[in-house]
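Quick note —
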Amino acid sequence: MRYDPDAPSEERIKEVLVHGQPLEPGLLYTVAATDWEFNERTGYVSVSQEEVTYEVPTVLREAMQDYLARHSPLSVDVGGRIEKIEGR
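Predicted structure written out below.
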């Protein structure tokens, strides 16, 4: 993903690739996310609720606490997957 944090919110994402290829309009993609990200009230993702399927009733907070307890301290490396466009 390439994004411009200084662009208006609806224009920040400039490019998204899946397996090195741009997203194709009309193709159906499967995405993993939390229920908060797919909540219409957050405004984070605009998806009709008919398109969302929830699986595994794991509470995210509990999963994160367990993971952090086993892997602290954390180091984060996005591995070149997210590119911030500089200097606009």
